[in-house]
Amino acid sequence: MYWNLNSSDYETAKYGRRVYEALIRAGKRGVKIRIAQDGASNLSENEESAYLAREGLAEVREINVTRLIGSGIIHTKFILSDIATLYVGSANMDWKSLSEVKELGVVIEECPCVASDLYKIFAAYWKLGENGSVIPDKWPISYRTPFNFTTMAHMKLDGEPAEYFISSSPGPFNPKGREHDLTAIQKIIKSARKSVCISVMDYIPATLYMKNGNRFWPEIDDALRDAAYRGVHVRMLISHWDHSRKEMLPFLKSLQTITDGLPRYNGTEHGQIQVKIFTVPANEQQKKIPFTRVNHAKYMVTENIAYIGTSNWSGDYFISTAGVGMVVRQDAATKRLQSAFDRDWNSEYAKDI
């Protein structure tokens, strides 16, 4: 999304410098580095990627989502190495993401099947970063994927069989076959029979950044209410920090309130929605660092599916913002992600609303 790795303002910035220095070393030893980044968000001068380009260490393209579809940014965060190893997650190319912000991502090593599918998304970004680019009426076949919620791909994850697919938004960026990130989330929730656990920084059933006025956007909200009505236990862990929107809390309380009105099954069992607010602690020194000390993760886990994404959960992120989601069906993967959620849910940093 933006670059802020090469800082020396704070002691913990050293972790970002290590990543940046590794990129420079890779470029100098002849590794081909290509960077597709947002071109209109004004969040950063992106001086670091500009330096890499000037020194011939990387090729950089900027995607102006607003020019292409009217609004939006590139909010995607993934890294591909040799079309074999990959990272997908919530962390920006920012030293704060490595030391002062709580993030969550997935690394898959030496798996060309997954990496080549993710590369198709990168290739689409790269195409859209060309001068004067337009979104094609029909994406070429080479950008298409056969893998989605209906037809998952197969791989070995930690030596055990797993199914997966990669979702993406916004819709105009998606060639044929690619599951939209929103529909992936909705289908995962709909497929749950026992449990849905969600950890996201922001949750608001509305758009927030539309130029021509915002609107109510209940697509995920409705899916969660429907799941609870079916008897599913929904737990939501939402971040609280200095920049949280005050309107978020009433929407979350609205979700939680429906529990008492849900039907009972077998006389006593019924679904429910529970919401907690998660606050990352900060000492006096940490409080001086801007835009830090927040749970920035974006993931969901059910009894049989793990989802790790790059988007916050409000309408804009699925309508006009570029993001991806990694969906895995495997017992070991879901147990690992569930364990991470339960640790945070039961911690002293999570409080009832």
Automatic annotation (TrEMBL):
Signal peptide: none annotated. SMART domains: PLDc. It comes from the Eukaryota. Residues 70-97, 291-317 form the PLD phosphodiesterase domain. One of its GO terms (molecular function) is catalytic activity. Pfam families: PLDc_3. Belongs to the phospholipase D family. This is PLD phosphodiesterase domain-containing protein. It comes from Caenorhabditis briggsae.
